[in-house]
Design a protein that fits this description.
6 strands, 9 helices, alpha/beta, six-stranded mixed β-sheet
């Protein structure tokens, strides 16, 4: 790997138990499925191959949700680098799906219509119905977000909202670590990764909603010293990656 560049690896968590059941998950804290655990280990094996070329992960950023935390931990165990610094932040969380959280995606499409659910899932600026602040499942009632101003915590988000909360974290935390360490792993979620990629690659509002991010596949970015993208690629077998991305696209039926 060139010493004249920065290296960023984005890793969507492995399949979760609710991914396997085709449920809207959002900020609900569910664990990895057995398949997701193996995807995380496979991500570690793929990163080990890159390590042989000089790509050595020096610091990790994750969301505060278990599926991202455990994905990072399992990958680092394979790499033998569980000792490196790990930073966790709610701004890396998945998009909050509001009242859709816990509902089956296909059944929701049958109930409300595929087009309406597609708007809720994938439009850039239309959020799903929001949770009331009094709802027990609203994040302001979750102890892991204690200390965060309640008005900052969402009850439902569109992708534009995720971009708004994600990019400050990139600027204030991830980018400085890239400049300090050179190589950073971010273990996060489909929509928080989509939000960051939109900014990094200057993707349009219309095009970003069609970007599929497969679970458990490391996405390696090479950045110049102005943190502009020089190149990017998914690591692993291209056919397996294609199939995984298509599976994500089919989830709403």
């Amino acid at each position: 790997m060139s010493s004249d560049a920065f290296h960023l690896v984005l890793l969507r968590h492995g399949e979760s138990t609710w991914n396997a059941e085709n449920l809207f998950t959002g900020w609900i804290d569910v664990d990895l499925s057995p398949k997701g655990e193996e995807e995380a280990r496979e991500a570690g094996r793929l990163l080990a191959l890159e390590e042989e070329k000089g790509l050595v992960i020096e610091v990790v950023h994750t969301s505060v949700l278990t599926r991202a935390v455990r994905t990072a931990n399992l990958a680092l165990d394979v790499l033998g680098r569980s000792w490196i610094p790990v930073r966790r932040h709610w701004r890396l969380n998945e998009r909050h799906y509001g009242q859709l959280q816990g509902l089956n995606k296909k059944e929701t499409a049958e109930r409300f219509g595929a087009e309406q659910v597609k708007v809720w899932r994938r439009s850039y600026s239309t959020p799903p119905p929001s949770l009331s602040p009094e709802d027990p499942s609203h994040p302001r009632n979750d102890p892991r977000y204690r200390g965060i101003p309640p008005n900052v915590l969402p009850g439902g988000e569109c992708l534009a909202d995720v971009v708004d909360r994600m990019i400050p974290y990139w600027t204030d935390s991830i980018a400085p670590d890239l400049e300090a360490f050179g190589m950073v792993l971010v273990a996060a979620h489909g929509n928080s990764i989509r939000a960051l990629v939109k900014d990094l690659k200057c993707v349009s509002d219309d095009d970003i909603v069609g970007l599929e991010v497969p679970t458990g596949v490391p996405w390696h970015f090479v950045l110049d010293h102005d943190l502009r993208v020089v190149s990017d690629e998914f690591l692993g077998d291209p056919e397996k990656i294609r199939v995984a991305a298509e599976a994500v696209a089919r989830q709403a039926g």
